[in-house]
Structure formats: C-alpha cells, structure tokens
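Input record (one chain):
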Amino acid sequence: MVASLPRLAVLDNLPITKKERETSKTIVSEFYEYLPYKHNRKKNVVNILQKRETGTSGVHYRNSSKLKQTYCYGKSQCFFSRSLSAASLGLQCGPPYIQCPALVIYIRKKISGFVLGNSSTILPTRALWLFGTLDGEIVVVNHETGNLVGYNSSIGMINSVLGLCWLKKYPSKLVAGFDNGCLKLFDVNHMPAKLGDRSCGSGAVHFEDFEQLTSVHVNSMDDQFLASGYSKGVALYDISTGKRLQVFTNMHREPINVAKFAHHSPCMFATSSFDKDVKMWDLREKPENPCYTASSSRGNVMVCFSPDDLYLLVSAIDNEVKQLLAVDGRLHTNFNITSTGSAHNYTRSYYMNGRDYIISGSCDEHAVRICCAQTGRRLRDVYIEGTESGKSIFVQSLRGDPFRPFNFSVLTSTMRPTAKQEIIKVNLLASSHDADESSRDQGIYPYCGL
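The corresponding structure, as predicted from the sequence alone:
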C-alpha cells in the first residue's frame, strides 16, 4: 500500500518514514510486478500503435540519438502485442489488489464441470463455454452473445457430469464422463440449442465404462483419451473404434485426481494425486515406471502442461503452486502464495496469455492470483464479487481465455446450497465503464434457463 500510494503520509495514525517507504519499494519490486512483461512505467497506447504501423521498435542505442528502425517480423509482433497489453493494463493500474468489473452468466443448476472453448485453428473465433451439471446435463453457451449453442440431457439417467474435454482437430466434438462411469462422445452440431430437449442422447458415441470416473483428457492427435477417477490407475481409449485399449494400474499410492496429455506429443501425459506426487509417463514405454516423479508437501489437486509443453503447472492443497520443467521435473518457479491453514482449500491453477502468466484460485477464497510464470512475481490479486450484496462467493474453477490477453473466466460457488452459480468473465484491460457498456452491447444478461 505504501509503495502504490506515494502521497500517503499517515498509516494507522502513524507517520510513514523514509525508511519504511524504501523498504516497501524493495518488497514490491521483489514480489510484485507494477506492469506486465517487465514494463516499469506507463506507456501511451497511441504511441505504441504508431510505432507498430511504421515498423519502429522505439529502442534507443547509445551511439545514436535516432530510433533504430525495425520491421515487424516474428517476435516483433509479439513485442507490440505485449506492449499494448501492458499499456492498456497501465490505464487501469492501481494497487495490486483490485476488484474487477465482470460480465456474469447465471446458472440455476449446480455445475460439476467447466471448460472454455478450445484454441483450435480450425474455428479460432468460437467463444464457447462448455459445462456439465450435477443432473447430467451438458450445456454449451456462447459467452460473447449469451446464447445457448447446444444442450443434452440423457433420457432416464441422472448422473453428474464430472469430466469434459474438447477435441482439438474437431472443435465441435467433445468427450464427457459421468459419475456412474459412462463415457460419451458428443458433437455440438448435433445438439439442439433448446433447453429440455431430451431426444439428442442417441447421437452420442458410447465407450466402455470407467468406474468412479472424475476426469477425461484427449491427446493432441484426437485419436485417444485418458480417463481417471477414484482409483490408482487410468484407462486409455481409442476414439475412432470406441474401444478401451488398456488399463494402467497402481500408478500412484492414492487415487489420481487428474491425468493430462501434453499439447503436442500424443504419447506423453502427466498424472497428479493426493499422494503428493506428480508423475510423467510415456505411452511408448511400458507404464510400469514413470519418466520421473516430483513431489509436493501437500496433496496435489491438479497438473497441466504449458501451451508449448516446456513446463508443468502443479497445484496442491492450500495455495501450494509451482512450475516444473517438463523434461525432468525440476523446480522452475515457486509462486509463494500464502496458505490459509485449511486442509480443504483445494487450489486450481491454469496458464493465461500463452505461458506468460498463471491464474490461481482456491475453493475457500474469493481471490484470483495472477503471477508471472517466469519470475513468480505477483501482478494482481483480483477479488471476485457476487452480484448479490452480502453474498460470499468462492472460486470453484477458472480458465484463461485462449484468444484474448488478460481475460479469464471464473466458476464461482457459495455456501448456500440453493443459490445460483455464476460464471464470471473478467477483462483486466477494460475499465468499469467499458465492462458495463460491453455487457449491454453484447446482450449478456442473466441466463436462468437451466
């Protein structure tokens, strides 16, 4: 607070000394980012756009008073994109603890699974939220328009949807897993955009059941997927034939929470478990021994690969979040998020802006932490507010937007069992006025159809 408010003279009825100001600046520079991508001063968005238009980098050299002219090849485009993001965020820049404006979609049913639209190059503009409910419904919503895109509710079966995953090469298709072990392949194009229509379940492709299922994940080639659950092993399925190829047993000492394929290698996958271990596996080898094992001090809630597969992001109970080198499991970044002391504060973390930043939230807290993936320094703490006054909400799950920098979505929950759940869109680059106007322009209003 002292560093972010330079004109503050008195705090808690005590004058702020020069030494305290210097100490606060040191702490902030060590643990926090003032602006993204190591920018240490605010820049003008118009100037950056002009430099991008003319091809100037804006970099001064000691032996020349003129700007060196560079043209936008390769990394230059990335440079301008990051500079624009930093400048835009700088317009909203205040203390590193902010309460963000949000666009909200309300859901009456309890949501059990939540996935954003994939980043496939086939349909790069699709802005879809995919989620499942505890009543066995699968719902696809366009979060830019608020319109329902697809709906499925199986006849005569009320089982919670616990696993969801988009296919990458076929972005209209998805694999869903239910708590009774049922596994199905759906096509959104064959799902009616109408609530209550229960006639669409017959078009799904069925797979052999996997008991006590909690998670599914498709590989990079869209030819196989993994299923895991309340067991110490995983099952491998062939998508084209619908057959279960193999069951790998005793991979961990306790049940596996998540099994994730790499983004680019169809044979590599990682598993995480409450036994405190994260393990890397290779399908080309007999999965009797992992490629390596990395351990946390608490039980692991989840693991995921960075978009380029260079890193693993590991989230353990109560804000223990770290980044490992995917090649050998060595520690790369420890994010040093303060723990609460709760053994039931389940933490989930994902990448944002490619692999530049990570977002992390926990089920006993209403804050989303945004950290630089390379340095571990905190960029912002975003406190998610409910739309109803006095209502405490918590982070159940979250995802970064694969197309828009510094945009993410949060699935929230409350202590009241009858309360509606909210999926909240957060745009860190927009002001409160922009968010309100965008909400009205896009027609994103309370969605209470379920």
